[in-house]
Amino acid sequence: MFYSGLGKFKVKFLGDPRVKLDPIQTEFGEIESMSFIYERNIIETYMVAYTDYPSMMVDASAPMALLQGAKEGSMLDGAEIDMEQEIEIKGYPGLYFKSTFDGIYSEYKLYLVENRLYQVAILRDGDYATPAESDEFFNSFQLIGLD
Question: String of b and e for 29-39 (b: at least 16 CB within 10 Å)?
């Protein structure tokens, strides 16, 4: 099990993830996204990322509008949504969706926990992860240290 104390989550990666910090431009200025990426093989990637939004950005938007914006930002231009549904984690709002683009199949769960956006994803070339693989990874994601 992989733990991120600063990220306040744990998840079951199949190996050690690569950690990456990326700047993101928003209308409220630059914010940072922390990503944990495990590439199982050349065609399959598992990821957890989190971004802390400024409180004024969260306060100015409805939670589902922020989640929809995050969905649009995570998709490649021209990607098609195959399914989408609202979800939650520990009472916090979330969004689950699957999309495809040019043979890349993406499966995401997004959660807005106070002002932190979590993105949990599996990306594969050629097809979606099997239901067992998908369930094992997504169900292993847990929030920690929120007490």
Answer: eebebbbbbbe
Note down the domain range covering 36: 2-143
The pTM is what? 0.92
Distance in angstroms (rounded) separating the CA atoms of residues 30 and 126? 34
What total number of domains does the chain contain? 1
Cα distance between residue 104 and residue 13, in whole Å? 20
pLDDT tens-digit series, residues 64-123: 988 998 898 887 778 899 999 999 999 999 999 999 999 999 999 999 999 999 999 999
The enclosing domain of 114 has a CATH number of: 3.40.1000.10
